[in-house]
Design a protein that fits this description.
- There is one protein chain.
- This protein has 226 residues and is of the alpha/beta class.
- The protein has a single domain, classed as P-loop containing nucleotide triphosphate hydrolases (Rossmann fold, 3-Layer(aba) Sandwich).
- The chain is built from 7 helices and 10 strands.
- The strands form 2 sheets. Strands 6-7-8-3-9-10 form a 6-stranded mixed beta sheet, with helices on both faces. Strands 2-1-4-5 form a 4-stranded antiparallel beta sheet, covered by helices on one side.
- Helix 3 packs across helix 4.
- It binds adenosine-5'-triphosphate and magnesium ion.
- The site of adenosine-5'-triphosphate has 13 residues, from strand 1, strand 2 and helix 1.
Amino acid sequence: MVKVNHVVKNYTIGKLEVHALRGVDLEIKDGEFMSIAGPSGSGKTTLLNLIGCLDACTGGDILIDGESIGGKKRDERALLRRRKIGFVFQSFNLIPVLTAYENVAFALSLLKTGPGETRERTMKILEEVGLTGLEKRFPNELSGGQQQRVAVARALVKKPTLVLADEPTANLDSDTGREILKLMEDLNRTHGTTFVFSTHDPMVMDFAHRLVLLHDGAIVSDKAKK
Ligand SMILES: Nc1ncnc2c1ncn2[C@@H]1O[C@H](COP(=O)(O)OP(=O)(O)OP(=O)(O)O)[C@@H](O)[C@H]1O
Ligand SMILES: [Mg+2]
């Protein structure tokens, strides 16, 4: 479903060129639960942002369900992202003035979903992530783990084919982090949604069914684990 072909990404800062990805090839199949791991600066966020259509490749191309994103304009990439991809971030990135319910429902409003269906789908996914009863709380009235559950619900509510999570447990203690990973694993099993999460934490890598290691902008190992 996702094909990364010889992807190169350079960033330019003044006269300096940073080679963030140096020719990455990767195939992600439907329903995978995989981790992209590697030390700080190895290119994890860069790779997730490119797969997630948040940024454009310097060289090479990425195909999502056979559609090349390389040739697409910015707004076409945004449309593809809105339809197919859910994001979970390290710092949760919830909208502070919206409640848990509203943060999740907002993702559907962008897809022009009707009010009845929005309510039904939002309540159902909030129940699945274990937040029933907390729908009316604002992000600052929730624990870190609960906020990340809202973020996972927000990513899943639009039924994306792919969820990208950039260090989703980095701001959580290890028990809470483990709960979030278990939740994502459950959702991967029950919904068949593909999950790709980045990390440099060995405990988090352990959860992955497939582990891809990045080093200095290149893949140095790719192992099926479960
Ligand atoms: N916007 C940017 N402008 C310039 N250089 C960047 C930019 N974003 C990332 N880089 C550089 O690209 C390289 C890869 O960065 P990236 O953020 O992808 O690494 P990472 O593996 O996610 O690291 P971390 O574990 O610290 O999050 C690094 O050398 C980084 O400094
Ligand atoms: Mg990063």
